[in-house]
Design a protein that fits this description.
The chain is α/β, with parallel strands linked by helices. It contains 14 helices and 16 strands. The protein has one domain: Alkaline Phosphatase, subunit A, CATH 3.40.720. The strands form four sheets. The protein has an eight-stranded mixed sheet, sandwiched between helices. It has a four-stranded antiparallel sheet with strand order 13-14-15-16, covered by helices on one side. Strand 13 and strand 14 form a beta hairpin. It starts with 9 loop residues before the first strand and ends with a helix.
């Protein structure tokens, strides 16, 4: 191999599915992620990063394209959605700049059913040459891949399907180990396939490797020994809102969700949180092995390393599970970037959007921006943590809009009415909804204007 070119760094993108913004031990003390923490120490952690949509497919389309749901028209998980092959993506930009591109794990840019290998041509058209794709945990029961072939050969695929069926027929939030043993577990498969690919990579071109784990997305089925790694009694209690039931304010999607909360039994939330922490520890160990390969190749210093997630997970906060709302556990995401020659050990509170990742990687690679993208590169912030990036972050879901500045978060319902308003400085856990209170009318007016301006500016 030729020596690495410092002007053209390799790029390792680690992506998780449904990882809360606080599910890192560099942020919280209820889990253990030393390898993720290592990335944070070597680069910049963006503490106020928001997904462009708190649901899988819209978030991933926005990430790939740098366009909002109101641009690409994907507002929810549409099981038959296929991103058109002519769609400009930043992955294509890296390939055009001479990068050898690969993806291992979940993309969710096309339907997760049938045999995913029949649609590898789509993923290549999106800009990823080497493809080893799996579906998410639920879709794996109906979507075939190289991984499910291995499961079938090992005699565990039928047990996985049965376990999934039992969970969702009875108690979807039950925390119990997967019937798939550790060596075959999906997140281990993804990590080991990426690791093997990088060990064998011998092209002189710089490489881009996207490692896209399916966890810690529910079900809460981390395998042993990770399932027993954390004591449920050590888990933090769920956040409980203190919103006046009779508050005269508009209502929105979240209010409907709050009326349909799961019937948790004592200990349920603590157990699922402990299992979630175990899954994160498993993923972190896989990340550590991948970083070890990059280090063994002598390329760690000249490799950009990024870690993000598509959205978060409520994990019992506000009495809710999953995502699909604008509360912090659902809409905020982990966002780390380590880049050669840039600041290390920095935490930036600049509002950041998930899709800003693509623009950042392109600039670090010396590649051209994506046509029609509204993503903004974070390179200026990596060079100067005090650099202004965005005034506010925007997220969308089913016709609703969220806008978050460093001080305030607001959500508009489908009628354009403010139904959520949080003072993020004095109420970081969002326990007090201030929407429609007279004393914040000026704040609401300013935030509404800012949101409408952003929607108009990004209307095309």
């Amino acid at each position: 191999m030729s020596p690495p070119d410092p002007a053209r760094p390799n790029i390792l993108l680690v992506m998780t599915d449904q990882q809360r913004w606080d599910a890192m031990s560099c942020v919280s003390d209820w889990l253990l992620t030393p390898n993720i923490d290592r990335i944070a120490r070597a680069g910049t952690r963006f503490s106020d990063a928001y997904t462009n949509s708190p649901v899988c497919i819209p978030a991933r389309v926005s990430l790939a394209t740098g366009r909002y749901p109101h641009n690409h028209g994907v507002w929810q998980n549409q099981n038959k959605y296929t991103m058109p092959t002519e769609t400009p993506t930043w992955m294509q930009g890296l390939r055009s700049a001479g990068y050898a591109t690969s993806v291992f794990g979940k993309t969710h840019l096309h339907p997760h059913n049938g045999d995913l290998r029949d649609r590898e041509h789509l993923v290549r058209a999106y800009g990823l040459d080497h493809v080893d794709e799996i579906a998410g945990p639920r879709a794996t029961t109906v979507a075939r891949s190289h991984m499910t072939d291995r499961w079938e050969a090992a005699g565990v695929y039928a047990a996985y399907r049965q376990d999934s069926q039992d969970r969702f027929r009875n108690k979807p939030w039950v925390a119990r180990p997967s019937p798939v043993p550790l060596e075959h577990y999906a997140d281990v498969y993804v990590g080991q396939q990426a690791k093997s690919h990088l060990q064998e990579h011998d092209r002189t071109a710089p490489w881009f490797c996207w490692v896209s784990f399916g966890g810690p997305h529910e079900p809460w089925d981390a395998p042993e020994p990770y399932a027993s790694m954390f004591d449920p009694a050590s888990m933090p209690p769920p956040i409980e809102p203190a919103w006046p039931a009779a508050q005269a304010r508009p209502r929105g999607r979240l209010d409907r969700r709050l009326k349909q909360r799961p019937a948790f039994e004592p200990g349920d939330v603590a157990r699922l949180r402990a299992n979630y922490a175990g899954n994160m520890a498993l993923i972190d160990d896989q990340i550590g092995e991948i970083l070890g390969v990059v280090e063994d190749r002598g390329e760690l210093e000249n490799t950009v390393i990024a870690l993000v997630s598509d959205h978060g997970e409520m994990n019992g906060d506000f009495g809710l599970l999953y995502k699909q709302n604008f509360l912090n556990p659902s809409v905020r995401v982990p966002f780390l970037i380590k880049a050669p020659g840039k600041a290390a050990g920095v935490t930036s509170a600049a509002p950041v959007e998930l899709m800003d990742l693509g623009a950042t990687l392109l600039e670090l690679a010396g590649a051209e921006p994506v046509e029609g993208s509204y993503a903004r590169s974070l390179v200026p912030v990596l060079e100067n943590p005090h650099e202004r990036h965005r005034e506010a972050a925007l997220s969308e879901l089913s016709g609703e809009v969220m806008l978050a500045t460093s001080e305030w978060k607001m959500a508009l319902n489908g009628n354009g009415e403010i139904y959520l308003l949080f003072d993020l400085v004095n109420d970081p856990h969002e326990t007090r909804n201030l929407a429609a209170l007279p004393e914040v009318s000026d704040v609401e007016q300013d935030l509404r204007r800012l949101a409408l301006e952003r929607l108009v500016q990004t209307a095309r």
